[in-house]
Design goal:
- The protein has 568 residues and is an alpha+beta fold.
- It contains 14 helices and 17 strands.
- Strand 16 and strand 17 form a beta hairpin.
- The structure holds adenosine-5'-diphosphate.
- Adenosine-5'-diphosphate (ADP) binds next to helix 12, helix 13 and helix 14.
Length: 568
């Protein structure tokens, strides 16, 4: 298109220039030719010795040959001959002395003029020459004839100009296509890359400049691709961390609307797609969303632990985000229910231990005080001393149990596993407790298959059985039997301890295995215990993969059953 316009402009320009040039050139050339013709004619006339008729004939022939009008003017300006008029008309012609070309020729030898001929009444080109006898010979041609010649030249020139411009246009267009095609190809490839098609290679064909440009763009594409990949892998990592975080994470805007939240947040709040919703709607608990309000309002972080209506405990921490982003704050939600429960247990445990130790210590202190004032050998002194011994024994037992429990709970108890015949082991424990049982009038009986064995640690299983038998003896009414049965059921070895004591209400059956839990503290006043025995039983059973449960009706005794896993 551009080349076509340029070619058209060149044609117009060449036309204008050629018009002016050809115009002048044609005039000059014809004048030159006339001058040469005049030279020859004057030489011929000087040499000829023509009679006026012969001269007239000579001049008319010459005029016809040279395709012009010839006039011979005498030195005084009188026209002697004129080829365009009949010889008869010549004498009546106007004196030519004042014609500019004649005057010029008379004075300097040659003269030239373009003017309207008074004879023919049309513009003419005149060229005159003074002859040796002083007369002037003049050739003339009409301007119309000049223009005719000029047109001939002009059309030839115009045709040449059009031809050259057409040629230039074709060359330019083809050269431009050769140059622009690779650029267009490069542009298409660059657009594809810009749209994300990094697999597309940028073409390097074409001229040197295009090749350089293509190479530079290829390098740029590679660098861009690497940067995009780096950014993408970082984005993926961040998204993965965000999603896999074990805490609920939520990002809100200044209007407290959720922008983004991770899976754990959705799981905790029970709202699968919280994005776009208000934090009030999502968190519902005032104490929780207050934290967001405070942080977005003051620009300072806030943190608190909130107990929800359903007993769950959440820790919430909200931090402000720098201004200039859509996100205004980020909140982390952590479920600390278990942690809180453990902490509460720890507090209860410390309180329980303190309480359990305070009772014997108070008794010992009181006894010691009374003892200080009592008669040394009195029966009262003996009683007080025995009370002090009993209470310190109780404290020692309590501390032993506590240490045992702590050790077992920590899981740091090395178990020596061996095959233990249950009946033998239970008989040994019963023997140890025989004296106490007899004291309470309790009859200890052991029944069952002597061949039943379990895999476990002898000392720890002995401790487990002792605690169960001790309780059974302790809670049995005087004279009632305590029966220990050894059995194997569905391949699982086990034993049970039955007594006819007060039994354990159904609601308490799980709780008695907790530390310090006692069904009725008034019972323990009669039969003091640490409240740790069954907790130790439960932990030892767990270490062996065994289960412990309790049955029996209130008022009709209890049966504690220990069931070991079937031997592999
Ligand atoms: P304690 O030292 O108080 O016996 P345990 O942990 O051994 O502590 O027992 C916890 C509580 O379970 C006892 O205080 C008692 O209330 C109840 N309990 C345990 N064994 C029996 C049983 N054989 N008969 C009735 N109650 C029992």
């Amino acid at each position: 298109m551009l080349f076509a316009a340029l070619a058209a402009a060149a044609v117009v320009f060449l036309f204008l220039v050629s018009d002016a040039t050809v115009h002048r050139t044609v005039e000059d050339r014809i004048a030159d030719r006339f001058r040469r013709d005049l030279e020859h004619l004057s030489a011929d006339l000087a040499a000829g010795g023509f009679s006026p008729e012969a001269r007239d004939a000579f001049l008319r022939r010459a005029a016809s040959d040279l395709d012009c009008r010839i006039t011979l003017i005498a030195p005084n300006g009188k026209v002697l001959d004129e080829t365009d008029l009949l010889p008869a008309d010549v004498p009546s012609m106007e004196n030519h002395r004042d014609r500019p070309e004649i005057r010029e020729a008379v004075s300097i030898g040659t003269g030239q003029a373009i003017r309207v001929s008074p004879t023919e009444q049309k513009p003419m080109l005149y060229v005159a020459r003074r002859l040796s006898d002083g007369s002037v010979l003049r050739l003339a041609v009409s301007e119309a004839r000049l223009r005719e010649v000029e047109r001939g030249y002009l059309w030839a020139l115009r045709a040449a100009a059009i031809g050259v411009c057409l040629l230039l246009f074709l060359i330019g267009a083809s050269a431009s296509r050769r140059f622009s095609e690779p650029i267009a190809e490069l542009t298409r490839a660059a657009s594809a890359v810009a749209a994300g098609d990094f697999a597309r290679d940028l073409p390097t064909a074409g001229g040197e400049e295009v090749q350089l440009l293509g190479g530079a763009m290829q390098r740029m594409k590679t660098a861009l691709n690497q940067a995009v990949q780096r950014a993408e892998s970082e984005r993926r990592l961040t998204a993965m961390v965000f999603e896999r975080l074990p805490d609920g994470l939520v990002v809100v805007d200044a209007k407290l609307r959720v922008i983004e939240a991770n899976g754990r947040f959705s799981e905790m709040t029970g709202i699968p797609a919280p994005a776009g919703r208000g934090v009030y709607e999502v968190l519902r608990e005032r104490l929780l969303y207050d934290c967001f309000e405070t942080t977005v309002g003051t620009g300072e972080g806030s943190e608190r632990i909130v107990k929800l209506a359903d007993e769950r405990v959440w820790q919430i921490a909200v931090a402000p985000l720098p201004e200039g982003h859509r996100a205004a704050a980020v909140g982390v939600l952590r479920d600390v229910t278990r942690l809180e429960r453990t902490e509460a247990m720890r507090r209860t445990f410390v309180a329980d231990v303190s309480h359990e130790l305070r009772t014997p210590i108070a008794s010992i202190a009181a006894a010691a005080e009374t003892l200080a004032e009592a008669q040394p050998d009195s029966s009262e002194s003996a009683e007080l001393l025995s009370l002090i011994r009993r209470q310190s024994d109780r404290m020692r037992e309590l501390i032993d149990d506590l240490m045992d429990l702590a050790q077992i709970e920590s899981g740091a108890v090395p178990l020596v596993r061996e095959e233990i015949p249950l009946r033998d082991m239970l008989a040994e424990v019963a023997e140890d407790l025989e004296a106490g049982a007899r004291e309470r009038g309790v009859d200890l009986r052991i029944t069952g298959d002597a061949g039943v064995t379990a895999i476990g640690d002898r000392r720890r299983l002995g401790q487990l059985a002792r605690n169960l038998l001790d309780n059974a003896i302790k809670f049995s009414p005087s004279g009632a039997p305590v029966v220990v049965r050894v059995w194997r059921q569905s391949g699982r070895p086990g034993f049970s301890v039955e007594d006819l004591g007060p039994g354990i209400p159904k609601a308490e059956r799980d709780k008695i295995f907790q530390r310090f839990y006692q069904v009725d503290r008034s019972r323990s006043k009669v039969r003091p215990g640490s409240g740790l025995g069954l907790a130790i039983v439960k932990h030892i059973a767990q270490l062996h993969g065994a289960t412990v449960d309790v049955e029996g009706e209130v008022g009709q005794g209890s049966t504690f059953r220990v069931s070991f896993p079937a031997a592999a």
